[in-house]
Amino acid sequence: MVQLNSSSMSDLHNCSINDFKKVVYPTIYLTVFILGVTGNSLSIYVFLQPYKKKTSVNVFMLNLAISDCLFVLTLPFRVHYYLYDSVWVFGDAGCRIMAYSLYVNMYCSIYFLTVLSIVRFVAIVHPFKHLKLTAIKYSRIICVVIWVFVLATASPLLAVGPSSNTTCLDLHPNSTDKMRGLNYFSLGLGFILPFCTIILCYVLVIKALLKTKLPQAKIRASHKKAMSTIIITLFMFLLCFLPYHILRTIYLEWGNGTKSNCSLHKGAVVTLGLAATNSCLDPVLYYFVGENFKERLRSICKKQGTQHQMDIP
């Protein structure tokens, strides 16, 4: 897991990267914070409501929402940093937590989204195996494994301190080689493998749908949810994660030298912002393909409306 530095430690005097960051990062992070806290808090509340039928899909989505909610709570600190001319006032430990939280959330999101696609795929192609895979017990075990794995593999970021007492979220020149190695590890295991898995699920689901003849209404509904889950997940990968991983790799290989390209730095800023937007887009997935999510939300709204009427004298 690698902290992407979207600014160079030298030769940026002729580049307006600092002014660019001061505008772009606070705008994106504040938007993600407002939408993310609202959407994910509501989603967590909905998922935790008692319901007659518990599903593995909602277990994975609940964990994804928790990951997103924890991350967006760190964004005000990032906004403060960039609005106050990149001066970090929250201490060494706070700086390390910023980088750590970003990558824990990113790769937890990637793995949870991948597992959701696999579950939907298995439900269509191997329905009997799906019964075991979707058992609540196994879904909780999978969630624990994902959390432990990501927390452990992201832990090297906690050992990488800020480049100075007042600077944070920047790559120290002495850490470039170490970050390069961590980048390729996270790129392969944290992005390429899940991305290829989702594409494979997408292709196999389409193949299965083409073979299906006159499906019953219930089967059609499950097929629709499977396709919707994979399509939305694929869209989020293409929008949030693919540009970021490409720019991060390019930057670590060629963007930290004395002839750094200003456009590359600005591109890194934009793609890091796009990666953060994943946290406010996930609730869209819950609403459209979550198991009984709409019904639960309507039930909560109905109860709140009834309670409000009872409170009126």
Overview of this protein structure:
The chain is globular. Mean pLDDT is 83; it is low at 5-13. It contains ten helices and no strands. The chain has helices at 17-48, 56-72, 75-83, 91-125, 127-133, 136-153, 176-211, 217-255, 262-289, 293-311. Helix content is 77%, strand content 0%. It is found in: Cell membrane. Keywords: Cell membrane, Disulfide bond, G-protein coupled receptor, Membrane, Receptor, Transducer, Transmembrane, Transmembrane helix. The chain crosses the membrane at residues 28-48, 60-84, 104-126, 138-161, 181-205, 226-247, 267-289. GO terms for molecular function: G protein-coupled receptor activity.
Question: Unreliable runs, pLDDT <50, ≥5 residues?
Answer: 5-13
Find the structural class using helix and strand composition.
mainly alpha
What general form does the structure show? globular
**What is the CATH class designation?**
Mainly Alpha
| Order of SSEs | HHHHHHHHHH
CATH fourth-tier homologous superfamily: Rhodopsin 7-helix transmembrane proteins
Secondary structure tally, helices: 10
Mean pLDDT, all residues = 83
Distance between the termini: 57 Å
The count of strands amounts to 0
CATH topology: Rhopdopsin 7-helix transmembrane proteins
- State the domain count: 1
CATH architecture: Up-down Bundle
What percentage of residues falls in helices of 4 or more residues?
over 70%
Oligomer: single chain
CA radius of gyration is 21 Å
GO molecular function, one term: G protein-coupled receptor activity
Keywords: Cell membrane, Disulfide bond, G-protein coupled receptor, Membrane, Receptor, Transducer, Transmembrane, Transmembrane helix
Membrane topology: Multi-pass membrane protein
Pfam family, one: 7tm_1
